[in-house]
What does this fold into?
Amino acid sequence: MSAKNPQKQSGLDRSIDLGMDQFGRFLRLRWIWLVLIAIVIWWCVVYIVPQLSAPSPGEILLYAFQIVFAVLFGIMQFVAIFWFLGRPRLYWVMPGETGVTFDDYKGNPEVLESARRIVMLLSGIKEFQDMGGTPVRGLLLSGPPGTGKSYLAQCMSTEAGVPFAYASAASFRAMFIGMDILMIRRLYTKARRLAREYGGCVVFMDEIDAIGASRSARGGGTMAMGGGIFGGMMGTGGLNQLLMEMDPPNIETGWFRKILRTLGLSHSRVQNEPVLTVGATNVPESLDPALLRPGRFDRQIHVASPTDKYRSEVIEYYLNKVLHDPNISIEVLVQRLVDYTPVAIKHVINEAVIIAHFDGRDMITYKDLIEAQDVHEFGLRQVSDLTPVDQRRLAYHEAGHAVASYYVMDRYFPAYVTIHQRSDLEGAAAFALPRPKESIKTLSKEDVLARIQVSLAARACEELFLDVNLNGVTSDLASATRLAAAYVGAYGMDGTLISYAAFADPIGGMSPMNLPKLADRTEAVLQSQFKAVKRLLQQHSEALIAVAEALIERGELVADDIKQLIEEADAKRVTKMVFEEFEAMLGNGNGHHNGSNGHDGLALVGEEADGAPSGNLPAFDAAAPPLISPLDDVEEV
It folds into this structure.
């Protein structure tokens, strides 16, 4: 035992004294077991060993074979069960094997800077700990799918020069109770061993909400929930083990050090190996609060899609990996690929390469990228076998949307219009979709009214040019009504400040439309915008007819086609107006009035000069297939 000495002892003396204390404590606590073991050994040596006769070599081999066979047979059964049922989807990547660095991560410089700081702490962990700092143990990456969360984790591992473990959290959901606990414990045991060897380790768990979901949200289940040996009822044993592994107590993890510490021969201070757990999820709000507290996931980073400012970095990065036309405008692609994730941009470019390859070309063009974007958003085109009646009705219906959006929606490209079905839009016989030129976060009063006009443009076009009312405006009217109701009852844009959101009572069943005059005010907005878009289409009837007839002929029109047709039609209209003015100044006196046919200067498509229907359009009204609006499901701001 250490003697009491008032003088300061040296470090070596203090270490020896501490070792003797631990060895003496071991003997004092376990002397009974040591005595019993010594008595059993003495009795065996004195009384049993002399009575034994030496077996023949054959018997020794037989006994040894039987014992080894029994042991191996029992081990193989457990190994088979734990090997096939207890293997998570886990991949280990050693330093330098990923091949991706921070230079390959584009589009989110703020996220990249946060990750770079964590890597610097992981690489210089000793200097950081000497300052008294605690290493970061967890990093949670959240955001929409395809924003590069797992890619960022790989970059961090490469830059830090440490092993990287990629684990699917869903694979920890095992069939038998306790298997998820065993898999998580084995994962972190190996991670700590590699951390001691390489100075650190990164464990990446994709879709961590599979095992980290809140315990209160799933009824507070326990590890044995479900009964029997099966653990398929979403027990929390795996989550509990993960919580312990992410913030472990100061215990020795190496088996050799454990033996030395048990015998009192090692008494050094336990060091926690720098193991960084990186989790990725699309629903961070579903995770257990204990998992999100400091000490486990110390940092939480939201990885969003690249903004307009940095989207060009991602496009250039992936475009430079393929052979492409050098005249492709990056600025135009930035506008077209609004809200696209890096993975989506990569997919569009690769789809363009496929299109160019099967077209017999060795580089992609801008047209290939546009076609690839349409395939990505809408699926493959399925040529529709339409009757002439339905073809004309659908064409004029969608032309109304396209022409109206061209004139009133300045922040959007001309619409992509088709009267053919696309595989990803089942049930839509035709549609027109204007794409935004930039990320749109707010809507002004004029923007909301413009969207209402575009939704109502199809019905106005039907009345003006076809003289029918079709059933395809169902979704258009629903979209326009939602916007108009929000215009007067939520956004306060009609001169009132009352909001129906304050009166909505799902328990009492009160509908916002029961508020005084809300329905009347909504109908007034719809009627006023219907008249406005009707006047707009009357003024640009040449453009609408040009778009509709081109759509009948070609089946679909892209933004550049729409722009060219409308500009040419407007140029003809201006020329016609100029000539009419000159004729009036010259005083022809021939009594001719251009466009006068008794229908406010607009002849119905397919009518003769006297207003009688021609043979191009039948007199009956065939039911049109369901249509979709260019602004279906507009997100309210």
Summary: The two ends are 76 Å apart (CA to CA). The first strand starts at residue 90 and ends at 93. Residues 160 and 419 are 54 Å apart (CA to CA). The longest helix spans residues 11-48.
